[in-house]
């Protein structure tokens, strides 16, 4: 979890998050990984085979390249109602007093997120 600086719009934020996720997934080339997002427009942009010439085109093309390099990674759409964990993390990052802090966890979620995991699985 972290914050991005200089984000121009929600699509930009979603693309940066995907880019970070793809970089993270690239560390384990033999691990099958599925990245979920409720940003259908972002997923469509990244899966589109044509060259994107929009203002965010360079970032979209970087994501496409990372996606092609990580053959065991898939990107799928998840409805917002089934993506409560991502929503809670985003709200926590926005309300956090520590603006430049990144948080990682590997074995169990932080206590403020535990109940949300249960909601997503139900």
Automatic annotation (TrEMBL):
Parts of the chain that traverse the membrane: none
Domain RNase H type-1: 5-93
Gene Ontology MF terms in the entry: nucleic acid binding; RNA-DNA hybrid ribonuclease activity
CDD domains reported for this sequence: RNase_H_like
PANTHER family per record: OS05G0353850 PROTEIN, POLYNUCLEOTIDYL TRANSFERASE, RIBONUCLEASE H-LIKE SUPERFAMILY PROTEIN
Name listed for the protein in its UniProt record: RNase H type-1 domain-containing protein
Organism per entry: Prunus dulcis (Almond)
């Amino acid at each position: 979890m972290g914050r991005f600086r200089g984000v121009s719009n929600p699509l930009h934020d979603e693309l940066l998050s995907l880019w970070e996720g793809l970089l993270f997934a690239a560390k384990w080339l033999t691990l099958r990984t599925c990245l979920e997002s409720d940003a259908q427009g972002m997923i469509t942009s990244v899966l589109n085979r044509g060259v994107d010439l929009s203002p965010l085109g360079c970032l979209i093309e970087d994501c496409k390249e990372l996606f092609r390099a990580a053959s065991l990674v898939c990107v799928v759409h998840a409805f917002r109602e089934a993506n409560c964990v991502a929503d809670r993390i985003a709200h926590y990052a926005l309300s956090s007093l520590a603006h430049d802090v990144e948080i990682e966890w590997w074995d169990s979620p932080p206590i403020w997120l535990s109940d949300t995991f249960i909601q997503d699985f139900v």
